[in-house]
Amino acid sequence: AVDISAETAWMIAVRDDRCRESFGALFDHFAPRLKGFVMRSGTSAEHAEEIVQDVMLTVWRKASYFDPHRAQVSAWIYQIARNRHIDILRKEKRPIPEALKEEPDAEPDAGQILALEQETQELKLAISRLNDDQRTLIEKAYLGELSHQEIQKQTGLPLGTVKSRIRLGLERLRHELRELR
Amino acid sequence: MNCGSFAEMSQIQHHIPEHVLAAYASGNLPFEFSLVVAAHVSMCLECRASLEAHQAIGGQLLESIPDMGISDGLKSDVMALLDAPEKAAPVYSRSGIYPGPIMEALKGAQPKWKALGGGVRQSILSHEPTGSVRLLHIPPGMAVPDHGHNGLELTLVLQGSFSDEAGSFGPGDVEVADDDVEHTPIAGDGLPCICLAATDAPLRFRSFLPRMLQPLFRI
Ligand SMILES: [Zn+2]
Ligand SMILES: [Zn+2]
């Protein structure tokens, strides 16, 4: 059996109750990792901390966009960090898709949230089973710099394995579509 | 991906290739292609779900990064800023056939069209030595000159349709063409074809005249 992870629970408390303790817990967990993430692309430790500060403030301010039915906290923060880092590095505003916002009165669907947690566990397992070469490659692609051409040359290996693990977002979207019709 | 329920809902047949989505998710895609991805994902739930899957992979890898240790004051600095007023960036929403990311590139205004000849018009959104992205307006039945590519070209249809050697493309569809593709897209009947086209290198036109005109029109 899988429980809702602490991170998800913290993030929901930040979103719904503006809970500072929960935000502090998220900060303790993610800030040091985000710093390492940003430093991988050659950013100095000092500058990296400015970006971490920026990313964590965005987590607080944009919390209403967090949808636990579709995203794990780590995935959501990854995406925020990527956007902020690029805006700062390239001094350009990275184009991002229109936001899908949940109906304000939508009740959380515990089954769906748990299913996503389960799926993420499977994803974690799939990543841990990669051999060293594959793992290096996937880290390079998602944490560093690999062009789409370089990624294309490599897609044979990890992408397929790993991606097949995550389909719940898609299921969820299908569900929302049915309601829209 | 093969999903019946989406086929009923959306007519989109041609999607963003997986390696381009992965490069976008990981921040490794240049601006001009990122705009096409962001615009397509705004129109396509299937690619949105794929993109979220890529973000989940990124999230798992983020979790596995060793703890770097942070400065003592960083947390209290951030906590102290939680209530600070934020300068909210403007949010551009969809306007007619143009999804939010395109409206943002247009800074909220409607496109300023420039004639290219033969009734074809363009509105350049970004033009850098590394690549360019523009809106094209092609009258029904009109052809975009026969051309090859020095690099990648992504074309997203926003209105009407076009077809070429690779197939037929309607609203929401993306055509992916690279180095070895020479094609002659022809706009379909009905509404004029309006599309968003991004390249990372100048297009090579086959006939002499258009090539001479290339610098003029910044194609
Ligand atoms: Zn798509
Ligand atoms: Zn072309």
UniProtKB/TrEMBL annotation, chain B:
Every ChrR-like cupin domain range: 109-196
Pfam families to which the protein is assigned, alphabetical: Cupin_7
Superkingdom classification of source: Bacteria
NCBIfam families the UniProt entry points to: anti_sig_ChrR
Protein's name in the database: ChrR-like anti-ECFsigma factor
